[in-house]
């Protein structure tokens, strides 16, 4: 850690030399002068900011390293480490009342300031990736350059395509997705450089290259799975002059609808990052702390995302809504929905899409999708049902008394929007979530390697040892 904290701009430059940058630059008295024809690249922006960020961490630890920042109760220990303050996550902070902020900006603020596609209204996820990694809002030119770089890196190795093609069609899309990302380890710049021997100061640059590669390839991998399982197996080539979301929608087979393109841009942006303690984010960070490559780290996170208590929940919400609609028939009155909610709860099940580990209000990501629906599909029957449940469920859950947050989270809405535009295969929804989540968790992995974050290794105790620690007799 200490050696990493002493890095300077001069020390960082060799780490950049191993990979070409899209920005043309010349050295002048130790600084870079960037050609006006091409914007400053993401990699160079991160490198230039890194010494300041390392010094910030060094100063914080030196002056306040022994300060107590919280306490741990036995309930938290046995309750899944809920609320324990123990992780560093630069990209976002989740407030229980306000919701998520990406580098200090709310979702509406990100929608306002991040660059958009020509004629579009929703932010491009490329811009959020830049913001999460650097803390800076990129220019339109920088985002266009990033779109072009991801498009240039998008081709997947032939053996990965063959691997996907050989999967049985009834293997869950998330299992196929994780397997294909794991197979990309064969292409890992980090793994190859580590095997040859490299300095710690070079870790982040190879992590950056791998992260850029894997993010660029995820839409093609996801689209190949989708087209194999549900369609004809044919995937359109990436269009080098288009943005990330356009290419993903086009490869899935949905680029003809401009509103769907806007939905995909919004979806990929708001599902990226939700603080570091959720399963997919924490797992990616944890596995990466052992110096596993971004491919292996992300694959581990995707396996966590596939669980029904995490990313799979959006699939469960849609299934629950459809069962409700079939169960109550044409009587979609408030009373029928209230009765259905109570029947769900009394059967020992939860209402999918409602409640959150941290939030104590309606998820701003839910509201972003609701605003989109009010604008583009206000008369859709399923959206009206979602709105009706939104008005009724919090009261029922509050009366039930067994949830700390009776309000909807992001999963309560996304499936209905995708269904409306024809992407009806609910078992694929978590793969969409996974493409987005990579854009959120991999910036932190780059930062971890850049600042020399150590392997994560918390202390554990047996129940008997915990009892002794708190003075209990069992």
Description:
The chain is mainly alpha-helical. The chain is built from 22 helices and four strands. The protein has helices at residues 2-5, 9-17, 42-64, 74-78, 107-113, 125-134, 140-152, 158-165, 173-183, 189-196, 203-230, 244-252, 258-270, 279-289, 294-305, 313-328, 334-346, 364-376, 381-400, 411-420, 429-450, 463-470; strands spanning 25-28, 31-34, 92-95, 99-102. A two-stranded antiparallel ribbon has the order 1-2. The longest helix has 28 residues, at 203-230. The chain is globular. Residues 1-35 have low confidence and may be disordered. The active site is at residues 310, 356, 411. It comes from Ramalina farinacea. Belongs to the citrate synthase family. It catalyses: propanoyl-CoA + oxaloacetate + H2O = (2S,3S)-2-methylcitrate + CoA + H(+); oxaloacetate + acetyl-CoA + H2O = citrate + CoA + H(+). GO terms for molecular function: 2-methylcitrate synthase activity; citrate synthase activity.
A few lines on this structure:
The chain is mainly alpha-helical. The protein is built from 22 helices and 4 strands.
Number of helices: 22
Beta-strand segment tally:
4
Strands side by side in the biggest sheet? 1-2
The residue ranges in which pLDDT falls below 50 over 5 or more consecutive positions are 1-35
The helix fraction, in percent, is 55-70%
Task: Name the helix and strand elements from N-terminus to C-terminus, one letter apiece.
Answer: HHEEHHEEHHHHHHHHHHHHHHHHHH
**Could you describe the largest sheet, including whether it forms a barrel?**
2 strands, antiparallel
Oligomer: single chain
The chain-level mean pLDDT equals 90
Mass-distribution shape: globular
Keywords: Acyltransferase, Transferase, Transit peptide
Organism: Ramalina farinacea
Pfam family, one: Citrate_synt
Active site: 310, 356, 411
């Amino acid at each position: 850690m200490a050696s990493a904290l002493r890095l300077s701009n001069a020390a960082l430059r060799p780490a950049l030399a191993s990979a070409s940058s899209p920005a043309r630059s010349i050295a002048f008295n130790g600084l870079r002068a960037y050609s006006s024809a091409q914007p400053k690249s993401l990699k160079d922006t991160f490198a230039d900011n890194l010494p300041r960020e390392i010094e910030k961490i060094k100063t914080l630890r030196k002056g306040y390293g022994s300060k107590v920042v919280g306490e741990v109760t036995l309930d938290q220990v046995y309750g899944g480490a809920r609320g324990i303050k123990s992780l560093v996550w630069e990209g976002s902070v989740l407030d229980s009342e306000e919701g998520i902020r990406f580098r200090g900006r709310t979702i509406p603020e990100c929608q306002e300031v991040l660059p958009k596609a020509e004629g579009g209204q929703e932010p491009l996820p490329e811009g959020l990736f830049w913001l999460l990694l650097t803390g800076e809002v990129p220019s339109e030119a920088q985002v266009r350059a990033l779109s072009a770089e991801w498009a240039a890196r998008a081709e997947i190795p032939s053996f990965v395509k063959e691997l996907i093609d050989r999967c049985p069609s009834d293997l869950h899309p998330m299992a196929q997705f994780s397997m294909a990302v794991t197979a990309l380890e064969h292409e890992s710049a980090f793994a190859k450089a580590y095997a040859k021997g490299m300095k710690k100061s070079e870790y982040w640059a190879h992590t950056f290259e791998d992260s850029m590669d894997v993010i660029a390839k995820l839409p093609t991998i996801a689209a190949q799975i989708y087209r194999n399982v549900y369609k004809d197996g044919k995937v359109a080539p990436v269009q080098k002059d288009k943005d990330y979301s356009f290419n993903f929608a086009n490869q899935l087979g949905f680029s003809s609808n401009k509103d769907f393109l806007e939905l995909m841009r919004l979806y990929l942006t708001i599902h990226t990052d939700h603080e570091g303690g959720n399963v997919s984010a924490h797992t990616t960070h944890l596995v990466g702390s052992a110096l596993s490559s971004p491919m292996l780290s992300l694959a581990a996170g995707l396996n966590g995302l596939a669980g029904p208590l995490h990313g799979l929940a959006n699939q469960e919400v849609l299934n629950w809504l459809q069962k409700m609609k079939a169960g109550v028939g044409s009587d979609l009155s408030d009373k029928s929905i209230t009765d259905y909610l109570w029947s769900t709860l009394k059967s020992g099940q939860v209402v999918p899409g409602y409640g959150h580990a941290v939030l104590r209000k309606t998820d701003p990501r839910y509201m972003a999708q609701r605003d989109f629906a009010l604008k583009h599909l206000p008369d859709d029957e399923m959206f009206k049902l979602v709105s009706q449940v939104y008005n009724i469920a919090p009261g029922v859950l509050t009366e039930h008394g067994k949830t700390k947050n009776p309000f909807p989270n992001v999963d309560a809405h996304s499936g209905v929007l995708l269904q409306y535009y024809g992407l009806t295969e609910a078992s694929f929804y978590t793969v969409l979530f996974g493409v987005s989540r990579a854009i959120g968790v991999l910036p932190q992995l780059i930062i971890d390697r850049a600042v020399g974050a150590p392997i994560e290794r918390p202390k554990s105790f047996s129940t008997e040892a915990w009892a002794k620690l708190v003075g209990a007799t069992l």
